[in-house]
Amino acid sequence: MDKKAVLSFIVLLLASSVLANALQYTTYAVSPLQINVVSDKTVYLVGENVQIYGNLTFYGEPLPNRLVALEIDDSANEPFIFRTLSTGTNATGSLKVEIVQVFPGDDVGNQLYSFKRGSNIYVWIVYKNNFDASVYTTFTFTIYDANNAPMFAAAPIAYSVPPGGPYNMSYRWTLPADAQLGNAKIYASAFTELPKNKGVPHCPEKSETFTITATTATSTTVSTSQSFYPMSITGNYNYTFTLPTKGLRLGNYTVSVAANYKGLWEAFPASNTTRFKVRLLGDVNGDAKVDIKDLVLLIKAFGSYPDKPNWNPNADLNNDGKVDIKDLVLLIKHFGEHI
């Protein structure tokens, strides 16, 4: 190779290196990866269905088959729901850490799929690290009853998972004595951090079904743990659940979502939040019961509308912009209810 060819080759290498560094350290006023999240309503009543949906775009174009981390925290900032959603049907994630299986069982890891109200259930998560170094991971799960209402969201368990596996962990929870009978479901997720802290999924979530009974009945079956993808249009994600009618905190709930996308030179993060409010119909003062105190407050606001001195938006039970006989009828109808 002559000197001219060698010089041209060196210049080409230098130019490639400069270009790579320029691309790698490019800053963006607005990230090209964007995620949005909305709920179908801003105020829900106890027992209503809630729909959360949004989309993930890269330079304005829908980004299919990506995983989205979702966390919903209640009015006390306690975890209410953890889920891993998808913008398609074939999302995989980085799979550095992968949940192999989730199942309900006893304290020594025997798989059981039928539990009596009031009994202990051990949720087992089996996982592995496919990477060649330890990977920090936050494990979570949520249990739903037969009405698709969340019963329990586990406190996150986070640590650096060493290479290899499979490993396992368990979490004990006592089923409520008045739990809804029928088929319940567990969904387990593995995040880099909590979604509210912009953590993203390592892998798709895994799910498993078990039965809640009124009498003692435990059984051992073959595991059917599987990845779960809600139906979604390419680039969009959606999720629907039912608000419980018992043990639910009223007030403002915060929905946090996060995702990322690894481009040629760098990874792009995206996160967003939205809020919705939960009310008990007739509960004017927000103490989770409908009683004489609420009736007194409604009477004080009776005949009012916005800009009136005695206006109380919480007494406008039907949300028609005024407090009148219709609101009084609703309060009387729900008098004595509580959660």
Major beta-sheet overview: 7 strands, mixed
For this structure, the CATH topology of the largest domain is Immunoglobulin-like
Average pLDDT, all residues: 87
End-to-end distance, in Å?
A: 83 Å
**Spans where pLDDT lies below 50 across 5 or more residues:** 18-26
Task: Please identify the structural class as seen in this structure.
Answer: mainly beta
Number of helices: 3
Beta-strand residue fraction: 35-45%
Description:
Helix content is 12%, strand content 41%. It is mainly beta and 339 residues long. The strands form 4 sheets. Strands 9, 11, 12, 13, 15, 16 and 17 form a 7-stranded mixed beta sheet that branches. Strands 1, 2, 4, 5 and 18 form a 5-stranded antiparallel beta sheet that branches. The chain has a 5-stranded mixed beta sheet with strand order 3-20-19-6-7, with no helix packed on it. A hairpin with a 5-residue loop joins strand 6 and strand 7. Helix 2 packs antiparallel against helix 3. The protein is flat. The N and C termini lie far apart (83 Å). The relative contact order is 0.18.
